[in-house]
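@channel sequence for tomorrow's demo:
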Amino acid sequence: MNNSVRNTARLLGAGLRALLVLTVVCGVLYPLVVTGVAQAAFSGKANGSEVTSHGRTVGSALLGQRYDKGMDKAGNPVPDLRFFQPRPSAGLGSNKTNGVNTQYDLQVSGASNLGATNTDLTKAVKERKKWVSETYGVPESKVPADAVTSSGSGLDPDISPEFARLQADRVAGENQLPAGAVRKLVEDHTDGRQLGFMGEPRVNVLQLNIALKDLVRSHGKG
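structure tokens (generated this afternoon):
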């Protein structure tokens, strides 16, 4: 019986020591090391890829956001056409006019999982395509796919160069800027394929709009 008690006590002591060591190593030292390396080598990414403008954090380069000037009577956001608009955020939230819905709400990120023949999806795409066509003065056949569909996450911060160029003249007019200067902004903020072959060319909407605001200020319009 005494041996049994001693063995039990020894096992309990070994278990407690292992628990203490693993808690210190895995719960304290490892997180501190990983955090320290991340802050030292990848501080921007570790802190959420924050984008700053004139000393103020205005968003993340990894997350899209909308540019609206309020809500209409039906409760739908009204896009502020002085700015370049992102692709729709048709994620897990409820659909609204022109494919605009959750306003890049992080709590409802994700795909809608609607199939290509789903009537709600096709209706939203048609409405959005008509809106883009009428707003920016282009034929519906020239409207890029990313202008009428959301990304898998519903939080894509980028749009295609085609969608950005499509908006350039209207944005220039709304801000009383030379169209050529705004088109050049788009070209200057167009990123190519990663490593030259992965993905597609893209334009980060937040960074483009920051540059647009600076251009507006430089022309004495802001």
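heads up for whoever presents: The first strand starts at residue 50 and ends at 53.
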